[in-house]
Structure formats: structure tokens, C-alpha cells
Amino acid sequence: MTQKPFGVKQLNVIGASGTPTIESAGDLNIGGQQVAITTNTSIAGVITATAFSGGDDDKINLGDNDDLKIWHAANGTGIIQNAGSGQLQLRSDEIRLLNQATDEDYAFFRDDGAVELYHNNIKRFETTSAGINVTGDGVFSGNVSIGGTLT
User: How far apart are CA 106 and CA 113, in angstroms?
Assistant: First the structure.
């Protein structure tokens, strides 16, 4: 591999009271087995990564007060937590919850349409423009009120 010249525009190393800076006229690539940053880091601009890694229970914290947290627990549970006082919203045209190993459906929220709930990959409950459809037996405890005509 041919070596290419590396042009550092400016390398300022300022004493303990200042801010050390590294600037380059082009891309600045830092390579090696590992690059370790052992203090708080502030990056302005876009960060592009091919992978993130960390141990179990390491959290990604977002928000002014670390209100949104995403992590993988040691017991195998993946967690998204809104620790603030507002809502946690998932926004999409459609939302589908699946078993990751078998692709079996749990729930499907269709754009401007049905909400479908599944048991063992069989649709058991669905909302419609006229009300609901239930497939299978219904077990109710307490009072049940049915309006309209039973057919």
C-alpha cells in the first residue's frame, strides 16, 4: 500500500487552561487497534458509525436530563425507557411487533386501519371501521353490555 502524505492544517496543544485542537483541511482519520477517549466528549456535526458496542446494561442516554434510555440488560431484555414526564411515542405509517426468531406476529397497527392482536400467530382480535372482530371463544368476567342486534 502506498503511503500518502498527511497534511495537518493546524495542531495546537495549549496548556491545562486552554483547549487542545486538531484541525485538518480534509478528512481526519484516526485509526488503530483502539482509540480511547477517557473523558466527556463533545462532537459537532454528524457521527457515522458502522457499529456500536458495549457490555450488558450499558445505556444510551438522550435528552437534557438523560430522559430517554436504550439498553440491553444482562438478563437478555432489550429496553427503551422514557424516564421523563412525557409520553414515549413510536411513529410510523405502520407498526408491526414480531417474534424475532420465528417472525410470528404479536400485533399489527395498520395505517388508517385495523389494530390486530395475535395469539400464537393467529389473529384473534381486530378493530374495523364498524367495530371489532373477535375470532375464537370469549371469556368475560363481570358485567357485559351488548348494544345492537345479535346475529
Answer: 17
